[in-house]
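Shipment paperwork, digital attachment
Item: protein structure file
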Amino acid sequence: MLRIRVDERRARLGRRHRLGSGCQAGNPVEAAASLVALHATDPATVHLSVAARVPGSDVAGTERALYDDRSLIRMLGMRRTVFVVPTAFAPVVQAACTDDIAIKQRKLLVKHLTEAGVAADAEACGKWLRAVEESTATALALRGSATAQELSADEPRLRTRLSMAEGKAYAAQPYVTSRVLFQLSADGRIVRGRPLGTWLSGQHQWSPAENWLPGGLSDKPTADDARMTLARAWLSSFGPGTAADLQWWAGWTAGQTKKALTAVEAVAVDLDGQVGYVLPGDEAPEVPVEPWVAFLPALDPTPMGWKERDWYLGAHKAKLFDNTGNIGPTIWVDGRIVGGWGQPESGEVRYQLLDDVGTETTALIEAEAARWTTWLAGVRVTPRFRAPLEKQLSQG
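Attachment content:
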């Protein structure tokens, strides 16, 4: 079995993730495709991930791709997480991951509707939900785009309340609005459009999926074909990786993962004692890249691409991840994490190195911090999920 060493994996990362000198992407769509998808749980991540990989990019350019050209689309995908993907690739993600999520979420929502007494039993609640979904989708089609509040005015049943954690100190009675819109999104019928505020806002208008894709997300491959395509894309961007890495990243079962790896005829390789996989013909060493440094945002797709991270993270997990597995802003040198960064209220980028990288590389990192301070132009980005080092650097 061919052995692929850590230094080779890091070289691949620099080139394939568009971080190495001379390897960067030409536009936001190319940047997203090079990573399969951009994390979008935190809306700022999309813009910062693009800016780290596309020289001269700005917020306006990424918004143009998202909302004017619609060559990128924001959708629910792997691990029930929101991503931004190239629009042409969205049907693959829908069939490979989102359809399974939609089935599970529908069952859960019907259960909650039944517990809230919305209808007589689960069957009746399921019919109620379908009726509200159809009415909401029709209202959205008539408007073209709309906020949740506007749709609630059109379909009053969206103001129905659920009863969550009844009898507990944290009991709540939220409106069903967000759950219905989430379900329509998971089913591929509606998509998130422009934010209601700045590019940091997590609140979006909604639009019919047909506004982004002719025929919407219903025109898609079979689940098996889609999982094969997604596995091939992941191996091209993130390979070599283990079956556990792919299973975690995609949110699949072990059986689905094994079947997808078999379908792409993945080649087994030795990753320092672990079995990893690459695509056929991708066993050869990567073309060397020039030394590089990069500042990546919280939840960037690169550090979130594998379940097993020691080969690029080292001993820094406690400082750079929160308690639920979300990574904060990081500093990279030649394919490994060497530190983290954050912003105090004044807005400049502060950083802390966790490894000794030498005087010359430290100077490059200092210059990159200054570049990001200029790019952000006083805008302070506070990650949705706060890592310990980011919190520390953001104080004062």
